[in-house]
């Protein structure tokens, strides 16, 4: 792993030189911030909106004229800034990024405009039953405040946000101590490092924030929110999954979930719920692992009158999977797909950089995902079925659904 050293702070640095096209891709990731660290729900998301306003009214016009893409986004565990441009415009792009990081538009006029936009988006989501059901599930299975609203926050929290809140966020989270830099393209590494260090030397050093951990509630839930206008039942479900990124056998979980519900057509859940019974157009269950929590997370949409039956089938599928595991044919198909589709995950520069960042973020050695494929290739049926049987926590399924009284 490489590092950029700025005033004694070692900043993780992922780099790939690639001269296939005269382009540059840069990503700055500020870890241990975003929704999970919001003092007021939606604060990190609002700060990313502020960054997307530039430093003045000309900022993005000048970037667009040079075909430079620059965008900030905020998730649950981190805030990131993505930049891409032609090689010839990288110097201008880097100087523009420096201006943005040093003087974001934390202004009352901008904040009020963004509040109106955010509240308008939230209002439109009040009729998005997918969105509502997903938030309902999170609020029920995680009882802590960070999950009681989406990354956007809610109407009350957005109204509450002030310039002081944004300034405090900037001070507490936009600094070197939790930063990761990912860079790739038609650049010489030595020159790229020098250019980046000029930018980083202007940022505050800051203080590392403590990583957070969350556990799903031990109480099994089946929460239903009745909406008379809902023509379908929108059902989300989740189970705990006791695992860590550094577990040496985590690759077995990826195979198992592919067979159970992540593999699309051919997966147990899709075959049983859609193909055999015609209860849903789409149904899945996927491994949802993060640094702060891990779970198996799923979704299906069905007729209101079929909601109870669909939930019952999901439970039965999980129970059978834990008890009996998978077949040799399912194992072979899963391995063939997961190994065979690997080239697609590395086909572009941005994808390769993202894979490398994910390996670092998860505490793995760079290149681990390719090594993992060799382990998958050797998996025996009895090994993976023993692994599946060990994870009895997958039987603790909680549901949340939006449906009407029918």
Automatic annotation (TrEMBL):
Residues 161-336 form the Peptidase M16 C-terminal domain. It comes from the Bacteria. It comes from Campylobacter jejuni. PANTHER family: METALLOPROTEASE, NON-PEPTIDASE HOMOLOG YMXG. Coiled coil: none annotated. One of its GO terms (molecular function) is metal ion binding. Pfam families: Peptidase_M16_C. This is Insulinase family protein.
């Amino acid at each position: 792993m490489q590092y950029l050293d700025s005033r004694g702070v070692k900043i993780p640095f992922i780099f790939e030189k690639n001269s296939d096209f005269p382009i540059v891709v840069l990503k700055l990731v500020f870890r241990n911030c975003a929704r999970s660290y919001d003092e007021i729900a939606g604060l990190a998301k609002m700060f990313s909106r502020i960054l997307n306003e530039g430093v003045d009214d000309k900022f993005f016009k000048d970037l667009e004229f040079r075909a430079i893409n620059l965008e900030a986004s905020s998730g649950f565990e981190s805030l990131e800034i993505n930049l891409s441009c032609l090689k010839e415009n990288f110097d201008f792009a880097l100087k523009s990024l420096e201006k943005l990081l040093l003087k974001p538009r934390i202004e009352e006029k901008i904040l009020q405009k963004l509040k109106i936009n955010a509240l308008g988006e939230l209002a439109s989501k009040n009729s998005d039953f997918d969105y509502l059901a997903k938030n309902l599930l999170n609020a029920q299975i995680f009882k802590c405040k960070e999950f009681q609203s989406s990354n956007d926050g809610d109407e009350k929290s957005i109204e509450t946000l002030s310039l002081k809140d944004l300034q405090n966020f900037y001070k507490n989270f936009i600094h070197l101590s939790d930063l990761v830099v990912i860079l790739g393209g038609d650049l010489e590494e030595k020159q790229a490092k020098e250019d980046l260090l000029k930018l980083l030397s202007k940022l505050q050093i800051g203080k590392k924030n403590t990583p957070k951990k969350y556990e799903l509630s031990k109480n099994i839930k089946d929460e239903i929110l009745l909406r008379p206008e809902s023509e379908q039942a929108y059902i989300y479900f989740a189970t705990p999954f006791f695992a860590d990124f550094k577990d040496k056998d985590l690759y077995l979980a990826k195979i198992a979930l592919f067979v159970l519900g992540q593999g699309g057509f051919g997966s147990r859940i899709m075959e049983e719920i859609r193909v055999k019974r015609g209860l849903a157009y789409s149904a899945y269950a996927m491994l949802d692992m993060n640094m702060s929590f891990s779970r198996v997370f799923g979704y299906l949409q069905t007729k209101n009158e079929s909601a109870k039956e669909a939930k019952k089938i999901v439970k039965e599928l999980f129970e059978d999977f834990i008890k009996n595991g998978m077949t040799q044919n399912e194992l072979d198909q899963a391995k063939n797909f997961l190994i065979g589709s690997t080239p697609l995950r590395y086909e572009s520069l941005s994808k390769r950089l993202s894979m490398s960042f994910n390996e670092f973020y998860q505490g793995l050695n760079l290149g681990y995902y390719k090594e993992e494929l060799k382990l998958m290739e050797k998996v025996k049926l009895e090994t993976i079925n023993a692994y599946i049987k060990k994870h009895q926590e997958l039987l603790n399924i909680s549901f949340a659904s939006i449906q009407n009284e029918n």
